[in-house]
Amino acid sequence: MNTADMQRRITDAVDDAFDRQMETTKQFSAIPSTRGAEGPCQDMMHDLLRVRGYEVDDWHINTDDLKDLRGYGPIEHDFSHARTVVGTYRPTRDAGRSLILQGHCDVVPAGPLDMWDTPPFTPTIKDGWLYGRGAGDMKSGTIAALYALDALHAAGLKPTARIHFQSVIEEESTGVGALSTIQRGYRADCCFIPEPTDAKLVRSQVGVIWFRLKVRGKPVHVFEAGAGANAIKAATYLVEALEELEEEWNRRAASDRHFKSVKHPINLNPGIIKGGDWASSVPAWCDVDCRIAVLPGWSIAEHQAEIVACVDAAAKKHPFLAQNPPTVEWSGFLSEGYELTGAEESEAVLRKAHEAVYGNPLKELAFTALTDTRFYGLNSNIPSLCFGAKAEAMHGFNERVEVESLRKTTRAIALFVADWCGVEPI
Amino acid sequence: MNTADMQRRITDAVDDAFDRQMETTKQFSAIPSTRGAEGPCQDMMHDLLRVRGYEVDDWHINTDDLKDLRGYGPIEHDFSHARTVVGTYRPTRDAGRSLILQGHCDVVPAGPLDMWDTPPFTPTIKDGWLYGRGAGDMKSGTIAALYALDALHAAGLKPTARIHFQSVIEEESTGVGALSTIQRGYRADCCFIPEPTDAKLVRSQVGVIWFRLKVRGKPVHVFEAGAGANAIKAATYLVEALEELEEEWNRRAASDRHFKSVKHPINLNPGIIKGGDWASSVPAWCDVDCRIAVLPGWSIAEHQAEIVACVDAAAKKHPFLAQNPPTVEWSGFLSEGYELTGAEESEAVLRKAHEAVYGNPLKELAFTALTDTRFYGLNSNIPSLCFGAKAEAMHGFNERVEVESLRKTTRAIALFVADWCGVEPI
Hints:
Two copies of one chain form a homodimer.
Chain A: H1 3-16, H2 18-29, H3 39-51, E1 55-60, E2 83-89, E3 99-104, E4 124-126, E5 129-131, H4 135-154, E6 157-159, E7 163-168, H5 176-184, E8 191-193, E9 200-205, E10 207-216, H6 231-253, E11 268-275, E12 285-294, H7 300-316, H8 319-323, E13 327-335, E14 338-339, H9 344-358, E15 363-367, H10 373-380, E16 384-386, E17 391-392, E18 400-402, H11 403-421, E19 423-425
Parallel strand pairs in A: 3-7, 3-8, 8-16, 9-15
Antiparallel strand pairs in A: 1-2, 2-7, 4-5, 5-18, 6-19, 9-14, 10-12, 10-13, 11-12, 17-18
Helix pairs in contact in A: 1-4, 1-11, 2-4, 4-11, 6-7, 9-11
């Protein structure tokens, strides 16, 4: 069987199963697997892997095992149900290069339901797009990888290298799920994460720091408002000070070889605010959960220190905060940026697969969001590719993924695996 | 019995019972009667009135009966348990001037407990002050009025006019409790509310409008922050616009005959803020609950319209808000200011009582908070006096009332009742 024949058999197999793939994608996306509620999603993935004959490793994550590892971010909620699921394929004859295929099943909150055109957890196909929370980021990618492996089997082929299919949690908040696979000992010659990248290869990605500003004021009756400090207004003042730091960091980004061409790659986001108990009481407290990006090579510890220094300096200039210093809590991501290097071999394989499916050269991307690739790359020196379908409004209302782009992604993953791991007839 | 003898017997009776009064005050203040949880407080007051022989009227409030009355403010929470308790004393011989004695038993939230030196609902006497949420505002005042009536009885006297002792809720949010007593038909020749005023008579008080700014943004992944609108930041921008309106209203206040001497009588308070669901999602929504004051004679409807116009005008200048107009909800108080007029007769009686107890002339106050007096004065033309003890940190941490000021307040109320209603030997 020549290469072109084999490619055709594989991509035909993808097409043959594509309706079933979309059905599975919808079922997977229908599970509201927000933080802390990923259990049923992991159960579904456990079953999908088990019935396909993978050796399933399904374990509860113990943060004590992880907290001293590179890239760990603190967990604040009940983590007793947190699990990782890995399905392993072991070849009869091990001749190729081993692979980790990874996807995260956690999704960000849907936000106010009335702002969705269709319910976020009722995945709906409309005008060639699949709508739903997580449909893009990234349940469709995980299922695409699963069906890519199925397609090889349907084409009468089996890989000749070990494959770990990993379903993780916490990608949206700490990355502790991916970190747990490293700690558990999973390794391979390459990692591939099908996040939605619009068929581009992520060359470099930002890191992220999450932190919480905590302001504690002196509440008084509003009739003596001058005597109290309004914690909400003090918190707003601190966010403005941090926006100056954001601009300073963007100026530094101009010297990054990949991000210099990206407009404003460092975004500060005050994402959650809660403050005060009563409209007629000057608010005594205000918490603001923020996210800010860093670039590859930037030290997390040094940038944490800059955040604290910025808050402290601003507080010193504020009559109330000077007397009642705000605090900074680390509330999730403490994640470095990651630049894909030393991956020439796997990149070449992806480039070929891409060319075969899309008929044009693979483009690259400097990504202003993070992905789990950093753990494989930085902690275990496993080159980690991130490549996937076309999605829009990730984290927004009416999140969606383009159905045809999913078909192509699935073909490309299948061809990549066949080439990277090698295949032989069943 | 001459006046001085009678006064002495009454004030002695207050002193004799003062330890018991403080005990009752502590018990009453120990009940965490925040909004919606006033039931047990009303039960206690029901019992206190019943054992003393008052005719108790204890009813559930039906907002349908009230919503078209002057000064009604909208209720957003479950109101099915909301009650008013009125104990009525009817004289054997009706010769004097009837009286409403009123206090509210609702208290504002305690806020973060760790900012209190003693637990807010464990009333504690320390260095001559009683500490606790509601100890000042205004449970100690209500119990003072109850014990003032007890003192007349202990002095062998009974009033010769009808007295309605009213325990109400919602003073801190809408005033609907006081309004319910008007709707129920309770009337008298004078109303007296022992809020903590540091032994001053409230001559004029502000009104209050509560409103909620609702901003709905377009949430997107923070990696494309420029494409989304941060609802938290948009809400902050609207608060800043409203601060300009606050200053405009303060300029107008310079022509008010009572408030012209008060520095910054109109306070805008952004008191509660809630926005966003996820640190790494550009927040899609933000609600800010605000309070602003108005002066006596200012139309509520006109000032509501000014608030809406201010928000609309600011939104039009804001790239995102212009496309996604914020809304203003009326979330509680829609309350006019109140100036005490036409009360010369009752004022003269209070002046005499004050002089007898304090040995100096009664001072007056332009009050930058509101009280329930407005309903009696504006809706039913009942002159309404507000006078009481010395309290600090109302709505704040370590709220407290000075114990000796309570004793004097109780004496003054007892002398006022004896003079206003008239008394005769039991």
